Amino acid sequence: GVSKFSTSHDLLWVETMLSSVVSFLKFSPDLLLAVPDALTRLTALLEKVFPLISSGGRFEREGNDPVGSARLSSTRSSVMEAYSWLPPGSFPLSADRIFSFAAAQIQDLSGSDVLCSILDSLVSREDKLIEAHSIERAVGPGQVG
Hints:
Elements: H1 7-27, H2 29-34, H3 38-53, H4 66-85, H5 95-111, H6 119-122
Helix pairs in contact: 1-4, 3-4
C-alpha cells in the first residue's frame, strides 16, 4: 500500500526492521528452515524492500540529507547482509540483481575511499583484482588495471 508517513520516517522503520532480520538470520539460522514458510516470507520481504533502496527507488532522495544518507547506506548494507545469510539458491529470481547492486555499492564506496572490512575475506589471494589501482594511485608495479 501507500504510506502516509514521510520517506525519512519510513526509511527509519525499514532500517530498524532489517536490523532485526539480520539478527534473526545471524543468530537463529536454523529457525529459518525449521519454521514453516519462514524462508519464503523472508525472501518475499527482502524482494519488496530491495526496489525501495535501489537507484530510482522511493528512498533514493534520502541520500541528499546526511542523516538520510547514513540510514540509506545502513539499510542497503542490511539488505546485502540479509541476502548473504540466506541459504544458497533461495533467491534465484533476484540473485543477478542483488549481485549487480552489491558490486555497484562496493565500487561506489571504494571510489569514495570507504573501506569494506569484509572484502579480504570474500576474495582469494590469487584473485585479488581489488588491488588494481588507477595510474594515479598505483604505488608499485602490476597494480594498474
